[in-house]
């Protein structure tokens, strides 16, 4: 990945950037905000043209909106390779996973890489299956880590010049927990991460419960990286 130098008055993408506070609260792995945010980048053609934009969910999920917008506004001939990168605050639900697979099957020249900051209702078996189906159809899904937060900040956020290095540094343990759970999903293992919320105090609790099968199937260094065992 390459990064732009930063936002400036001459930056053509400026009006499509989101505000720093929006990015910070929407992509915080510890916050379970209702709204979903999508920052996306489309790269195509021999000159690697890049188009970047952002969107929030409205009546539809952001993924559905993207697909609708892409198919209605953009046309690439089948020989033009096109790669799309999504930075999503929430992973896609099973219905969006299905729509994404249909979209990709109709656009064989398109590849999709998805980074997510949180897993959406990850204990729901349909959502787990949806993510597995996406991975099996060739989509790469990863949890956002520091380099992705930095990249998004520099390319999608309307920061002021003195804030160029001020992308949010979230504690890595949350990213590792989500990465571990994503691994459980793709390996067909039971959930090991439980997220619960105490409404009275608006507190969110992350609990890691590992079973024998987790210890047997997940490499030890990944388990140790969580810092919780
Ligand atoms: Zn959805």
From TrEMBL:
Protein name: C->U-editing enzyme APOBEC-1
Subcellular location: Cytoplasm; Nucleus
Gene: Apobec1
Signal peptide, first to last residue: none
Annotated GO biological process: cytidine to uridine editing; establishment of localization in cell; lipoprotein biosynthetic process; lipoprotein transport; low-density lipoprotein particle clearance; mRNA modification; mRNA processing; mRNA stabilization
EC number in record: 3.5.4.36
Lineage, top ranks: Eukaryota, Metazoa, Chordata, Craniata, Vertebrata
Domain CMP/dCMP-type deaminase: 10-134
Family per record: Belongs to the cytidine and deoxycytidylate deaminase family.
Coiled-coil regions listed in the entry: none
EC top class named in words: hydrolase
């Amino acid at each position: 990945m390459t990064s732009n130098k930063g936002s400036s008055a001459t930056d053509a993408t400026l009006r499509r950037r989101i505000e720093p506070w929006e990015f910070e609260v929407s992509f915080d792995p510890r916050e379970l905000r209702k709204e979903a945010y999508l920052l996306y980048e489309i790269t195509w053609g021999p000159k690697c043209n890049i188009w970047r934009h952002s969107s929030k969910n409205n009546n539809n999920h952001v993924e559905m909106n993207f697909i609708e917008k892409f198919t209605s506004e953009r046309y690439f001939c089948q020989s033009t390779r096109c790669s799309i990168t999504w930075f999503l605050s929430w992973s896609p639900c099973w219905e969006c996973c299905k729509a994404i697979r249909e979209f990709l099957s109709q656009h064989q020249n398109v590849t999709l890489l998805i980074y997510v900051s949180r897993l959406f209702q990850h204990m729901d078996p349909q959502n787990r299956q949806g993510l597995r189906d996406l991975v099996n159809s060739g989509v790469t899904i990863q949890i956002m880590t520091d380099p992705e937060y930095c990249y998004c900040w520099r390319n999608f956020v309307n920061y002021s010049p003195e804030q160029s290095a001020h992308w949010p540094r979230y504690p890595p343990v949350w990213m590792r927990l989500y990465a571990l759970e994503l691994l459980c999903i793709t390996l067909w293992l039971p959930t090991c991460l439980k997220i619960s919320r105490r409404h009275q105090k608006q507190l969110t609790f992350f609990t890691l419960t590992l079973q024998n099968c987790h210890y047997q199937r997940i490499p030890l260094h990944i388990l140790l990286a969580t810092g919780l065992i």
